[in-house]
Amino acid sequence: MGENARPKLGPLPAILEALEGSVAEEGGTSRLRVITRHPDRWQTIKPNGWSVDVIWCSPRPGNGRLPYDAQAVIAELVTNETKATAFIVDVLDINGPTTDDVSTWLLSIDDCANMHDVPVYLPVDATIHTEQQVARWATIAPVLSVNATVSTIAQEPTLSTTREQVKRETLAESVGHEPTDGLRHLARLPDGFSVDALRRRIMQWRRMGFDVSDLEVALLQDPQEREHCYRRVESDVRRAIDLDRLLTQMQHELHPAHVERDRFRLRQLTGLDAIKQSIVGE
């Protein structure tokens, strides 16, 4: 036990390539257990020679779900009740969104490697994580890269989108109307946005500190319901950002405990009308 179970980072194509290169010999069984906050992402992904079992790691309790908690994921790896022969842990930011948060999470997984002998892979996304972040994490866990001579996996599996749609979505994700420090308004996603674009937007809002778990269900909805759910949450986030700025402007005239309380509620996207009345009314 130990060395084989140490965590490995990499883009999804590199992880799938590693899995396909380690399929059990004839007569053996290759069982992949995927722990993820986004089960929709894995509906069509199946490495050759592997059976795939996906478990939804969610902050909202439900039948068959794993709690969105670092210790719960560690326990899943150690107990391995499903007898998986490899794990993909697709919850890189379960401890928080910062580089240090992820480093702490990687260390936790590495620390439990002597308690089981199953390979553990953690996907990193180049559209979300910078080269500097990955380089720092590489001091804890090795980073896989795609073998250029292997052509079976050309790019990360994803829902197909047109080139023009990707271009519009990328523009919406990269252009903000405000400075990049702290909370900021992001450009609205275009009509008919893809599931991948929604997943990245959820990550952007979570990195700002907003609780947008209600939006995760939209990843599994049909396009019309998904867009309706997104627009509702988007409206709440934009209101919360405006109220946060108003709170900053007025904080010297408000009770410090009320400021702290309202900032917390803003991040939860709850009671926005009451918060506005609290700011204006005091």
Q: What is the topology, as strand order, of the major beta sheet?
A: 1-6-5-2-3-4
> What is the C-level CATH assignment of the largest domain?
Alpha Beta
First and last CA, distance: 61 Å
Beta percentage is 5-15%
Order of helices and strands, N to C? EHEEEHEHEHHHHHHH
Compute the number of structural domains.
2
CATH arch. level architecture of the largest domain? 3-Layer(aba) Sandwich
Shape: elongated
Low-confidence stretches: 148-163, 173-181
The quaternary organization reads as single chain
Question: Which keywords apply here?
Answer:
single chain, 282 residues, alpha/beta, Rossmann fold, 2 domains, six-stranded parallel beta sheet, 10% strand, elongated
Write the layout of secondary structure elements.
Blueprint: E1 7-10, H1 12-20, E2 31-36, E3 51-58, E4 66-67, H2 70-79, E5 86-90, H3 99-111, E6 120-123, H4 131-137, H5 163-174, H6 195-208, H7 213-216, H8 223-250, H9 256-268, H10 272-281
Parallel strand pairs: 1-6, 2-3, 2-5, 3-4, 5-6
Question: What can you see in these coordinates?
Answer:
- The chain is 43% helix and 10% strand.
- It has 282 residues and is α/β, with parallel strands linked by helices.
- The chain has two domains: 135 residues, 3-Layer(aba) Sandwich (Rossmann fold), CATH 3.40.50; 119 residues, no CATH class.
- It has a six-stranded parallel beta sheet with strand order 1-6-5-2-3-4, sandwiched between helices.
- α8 packs antiparallel against α9 and α8 packs parallel to α10.
- The termini are far apart.
